Amino acid sequence: MKLAERLSRISEPQTIMMAKLSRELKAQGIDVVDLSLGEPDFDTPNHIRAAAKSAIDDGHTHYTPVAGIADLKKAVVHKLKRDNNLDYSPEQVVVSTGAKQSLANVVLSLVDPGDEVIIPTPYWVTYAALVNLCQGKIVTIKGSFEHDFKITPEQLEAAITPKTKLFMFSSPCNPSGAVYTKDELEALAAVFSKHPEVFVISDEIYEYINYDGQHASIAQFESMPERTIIVNGLSKGFAMTGWRLGYIVAPLEIAKATEKLQGQFTSGTSSITQYAAVAALINDTSTAVEMVKAFRERRDLFFDLLKDIPGLKINKPEGAFYLFPDISSFFGKSYEGQVIKDSSDLCAYLLHRAHVTTVSGDAFEEPNCIRMSYATSTEKLKLAAERLRTWLAKLQ
Ligand code: PMP
Question: Which domains are assigned to the chain?
Answer without folding.
Answer: 5-43+287-393 (3.90.1150.10), 61-283 (3.40.640.10)
